[in-house]
Design brief:
232 residues, 7-stranded parallel beta sheet, alpha/beta, 35% helix, Rossmann fold
Amino acid sequence: MLYMYKVSKMKNVWITGASRGIGFETVQAFLKEGHNVVVMTRNTEALSELVVTFNGRLHLYEVDLLNLKETVLPDIPVDVLINNAGALVNKPFESISQEDLQKVYGTNVFGPIQIIQTLLPQFSPKAHVINISSVGGVTGSVKFPGLSAYSSSKGAMTILTECLQAEFGDKTDWAFNCLALGAVQTEMLEEAFPGYQAPVNPEDMAAYILHFALNNSRVMRGRVVEVALSTP
């Protein structure tokens, strides 16, 4: 398995959308392995206890991906950037409003683009960017009614990942990869599929993301990897 390699060097890991679900568990996973974590989220209060527990290694910044104009981020090198923040609208296509589209695409596409642009000067020589997408955003996968805005925005992230690798692959050692996740038992899954019980929990997915982030840039770049037991 690719993620069996051990990485001993401490990394500076940046994560968006970490106040709940997969993001929250991913933050804890990196902290427990001794890494520094910079969290960009709207709800910093949700991580306040972790700040005390992991004194000095967790840095919280209140960031709204829909309004990044006034955002000031710390001058900390970026070894790993995980674009995890996501917004979902579950509505029939004919009912989707401009406000819905601004929320979904602003959070899932435009915000991550601006975050990457802002942090480029701080990328370390072998920085690894991981865009969290969805199996629903992969061409040829099963699609579901009500999720056209969400799935299409995640499809944009899969293509963006490939484009970024093409843009920077010849002139840097940066790696851009995308994880297209299947069903994970989170609040967002409940919004999309009320009552459905996923076979994967956030803790297990966080462990996978950690090992992928630290190791897989050695062997893959510009890839979209489906990570799923079910969809949903």
